[in-house]
Amino acid sequence: MVLARNSLLTFVLTAFAISAFSGASYVNIIAPYNYTLNGNSSVYLGKVGPGQTFYVTISSTTTNRTGTTLNYGWNELLAANVPKGWIVANSSLYNTQLSVEVTAAPNAANGTYAFNLTAVNVGNYSKIGAIRFQAFINVTPNVFNLNVSPEQLNTGPGEPINVYVTINNTGVSDNPFIIKAEGLPAWNATKSVIALHHTADTFIYPVYENEPGVYQLRMNVSSSSSPLIDKRTNATLSVQASVPNDYVAIGQGSLAFQIVYTPVYSIMYLISLLFKH
Question: What's this model's pTM, rounded to 2 decimal places?
Answer without folding.
Answer: 0.77
